[in-house]
């Protein structure tokens, strides 16, 4: 298998896992527990039964090499680290954020964000990045990126709950416009 083919296969497996561990487990007959976990053997069997064979080695490779640490393995179980559109409780305790977090978006979204703030849209939480570089990459997935700074320190002081996922993404229910900086501090 060529290196390029191997990389494409890894990406395909990662996207498949994201789709079925974050959004549509029922499409392949999976039932996730309340924390979003499923037995690895059950996942592999369900994928194979629906025409997408994944070896345990491929799965371990995707989990180990994913630059965003999208998946977590605990014992014999796996789950997506965050980004679910289905109802799961990741069991993350509230955490004290750094003074500023960042959110990558695109110009066409700015008008709505100025009015409504950041909302989770089809996800459970708004995702915030710990640094500008990560936020820039997130925004760039949808066009020319714009990075907004979030006054996370003030949000925390004002009683907003923020949590941090296993892969370092900060999660919160919403970010009202008053906590946003267009663009943020340097």
From TrEMBL:
Protein name from the UniProt record: Probable RNA 2'-phosphotransferase
EC number: 2.7.1.-
Gene designation: kptA
One Pfam short name: PTS_2-RNA
Keyword terms, alphabetized: NAD, Transferase
Enzyme class, broadest EC rank: transferase
Family matches, as InterPro entries: Ptrans_KptA/Tpt1 (IPR002745), RNA_2'-PTrans_C (IPR042081), RNA_2'-PTrans_KptA (IPR022928), RNA_2'-PTrans_N (IPR042080)
Cross-referenced SUPFAM superfamilies: ADP-ribosylation
Similarity field: Belongs to the KptA/TPT1 family.
Signal sequence, renumbered to the chain: none
Function per UniProt: Removes the 2'-phosphate from RNA via an intermediate in which the phosphate is ADP-ribosylated by NAD followed by a presumed transesterification to release the RNA and generate ADP-ribose 1''-2''-cyclic phosphate (APPR>P). May function as an ADP-ribosylase.
Species whose genome carries this gene: Streptomyces caeni
GO molecular function list: transferase activity
């Amino acid at each position: 298998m060529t290196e390029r083919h191997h990389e494409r296969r890894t990406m395909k497996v990662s996207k498949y896992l994201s789709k079925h561990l974050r959004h549509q487990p029922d499409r392949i007959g999976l039932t996730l527990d309340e924390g979003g976990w499923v037995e690895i053997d059950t996942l592999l069997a369900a994928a194979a039964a629906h025409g997408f064979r994944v070896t345990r080695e491929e799965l371990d490779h995707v989990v180990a090499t994913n630059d965003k640490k999208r998946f977590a393995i605990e014992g014999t179980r796996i789950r997506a680290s965050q980004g679910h559109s289905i109802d799961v409780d990741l069991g993350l305790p509230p955490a004290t954020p750094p003074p500023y977090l960042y959110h990558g978006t695109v110009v066409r979204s700015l008008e709505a964000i100025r009015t409504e703030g950041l909302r989770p849209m089809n996800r459970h939480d708004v995702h915030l990045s710990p640094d500008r570089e990560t936020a820039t990459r997130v925004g760039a997935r949808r066009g020319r990126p714009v990075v907004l700074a979030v006054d996370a320190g003030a949000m925390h002081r004002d009683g907003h709950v923020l949590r941090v996922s296993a892969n370092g993404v900060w999660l919160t229910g919403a970010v009202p416009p008053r906590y946003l900086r267009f663009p943020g501090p340097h």
